[in-house]
Amino acid sequence: MLAESGAITEYIIDKYGGGRLRLGPDDADYAAYLYWFHFANGNLQPVMGRAMMVGRVTLAADHPVQVAVQGWGRGRPIGGRWRKAIRI
């Protein structure tokens, strides 16, 4: 039984994708594929989790933790690499 979302996704891709849903190591975009495939679990999910937890507690607006997560999850861009990948 798999319980980790990245592992579940990779299992489905490998089991049912028939080679159509992933890039191979010889593809020129393979490194970018791996980066974005693991982006949510490695970068996005921890930030979103912290923002969600901080949103559930009552902290002063100027509290350092509150200030650090302010704006995440409300349309704040993740960065230039994100913009380039989705062609903004």
TrEMBL record:
Keyword Transferase: yes
Gene3D superfamilies: 1.20.1050.130
Domain of life, per lineage: Bacteria
Alphabetized GO MF terms: transferase activity
Entry keyword set: Transferase
Name under which the protein is recorded: Glutathione S-transferase
Species this protein is from: Acidiphilium rubrum
